[in-house]
Amino acid sequence: MFDRDLNTAFILLGILCAVVGWAAIEFVLWLLSHISLSWQW
């Protein structure tokens, strides 16, 4: 039971890290595009 809960926790942690990492990359890309657009004007 403990091993299964531990594996589930690791899986959830991995999913959480993947989502946070993806969101951070999307935010950085949006920020860069926003800055480059403001620089063009």
Can you walk me through this structure?
The structure is a single chain. Helix content is 95%, strand content 0%. The mean pLDDT is 88. The longest helix is centred in the middle third of the chain and has 39 residues, at 2-40. By secondary structure, the protein is mainly α. The protein has one domain (1-41).
Over all CA atoms, what is the radius of gyration? 18 Å
Count helical runs: 1
Give the helix proportion (percent range): over 70%
Count of domains? 1
The tally of beta strands, per DSSP, is: 0
Distance between the termini: 60 Å
Shape: rod-shaped
Largest sheet: none
Low-confidence stretches: none
Strand content is under 5%
* Classification by helices and strands: mainly alpha
Order of helices and strands: H
The chain-level mean pLDDT equals 88
Notable characteristics:
single chain, 41 residues, mainly alpha, 0% strand
Spell out the blueprint of helices and strands.
Layout: H1 2-40
Short précis:
With 41 residues, this protein is mainly α.
